[in-house]
Amino acid sequence: MSNVIDGRAVAEKVYVDLRGEIATLKSKEITPGLAVVLVGDDPASRAYVRSKDKMSRELGLYSVKLELPAATTQNELLARVEELNRNPHIHGILVQSPPPKHIDEAAIVRALDPRKDVDGFHPLNVAKLALGDPSAVVPCTPLGVQRMLIESKIDIAGAHVVILGRSMIVGKPLALLLMQKTKGGDATVTVVHSRSRNLEAITRSADILIAAIGRAGFVKAEHVREGAVVIDVGINRVDDPANERGYRLIGDVAFDEVAAKAAAITPVPGGVGPMTIAMLMANTVKAARQSL
Ligand code: GUN
């Protein structure tokens, strides 16, 4: 049985550091401010937005939660983003993804002040990450995965990291982050996806396998080498009448069979999820610090 990496415990360590930094900023009359914008009423998105707002408040940040109706137009949303760009009390802005179909998400991301783009999705931040510019705002989930590996004393440098999934939120930025010439980088990174040939042979050659494809239980024992480290980024809702909420959350990894082979593994829930929120808070504090 493998070592189960406790994402909540690692997130707590991040919060200890952040509380100190927030106190320092407050002594300089700066309270880091985060605005989280939700358009529509997707239940999973509502739950995420609620957790982000709650954690901001717990840390003593200035938190604004904007919940806009599903019928909000592109221009109305752009106007709200502009207001937040101009608001000096707000250092970070996050527009929860995915928005309703009629919204052009890429255009909304381009409208964000890149200094306030705490998701790291703006083209300027994507370019800075690719260039290795330390002022880049890096997407929260990749940062959380990297921090978890570092805190768990898992060697990244020289390791073969295989990432399943090529999304702009996780796969692509994570590949860039782990191959950087810095602490927490220097990995040999392979990205595989739905069109990859010989997928199983590639995932079996991973020292660290990171699943981010959004398919419940996709990664099975046969995808994993004995002794590999497995990080599960997936958060899939599956119907479960026995559960009082009517669903339960499962990851992209078939946990029990993979845990029997892996040296270390992250659970769902309680793995990468808490780290993503912690890194959002860290990005907001970084944006406030960089505003000085
Ligand atoms: N939806 C799922 N993950 C994320 C994220 O990291 N940021 C935003 N804005 N939306 C998301």
Explain the overall architecture.
- This protein has 292 residues and is α/β, with parallel strands linked by helices.
- The chain has helices spanning 7-27, 43-58, 74-86, 105-111, 123-131, 140-151, 171-179, 199-203, 255-259, 272-290; strands at 3-4, 33-39, 62-68, 92-95, 160-164, 188-192, 208-211, 229-232, 236-239, 247-250, 264-265.
- The strands form three sheets. A six-stranded parallel β-sheet has the order 1-11-8-7-5-6. A three-stranded parallel β-sheet has the order 3-2-4, with helices on both faces.
- Strand 2 (33-39), helix 2 (43-58) and strand 3 (62-68) form a beta-alpha-beta unit.
- It is globular, with a radius of gyration of 19 Å.
- The model has no long low-confidence stretch (mean pLDDT 97).
- Guanine binds next to strand 4 and helix 6.
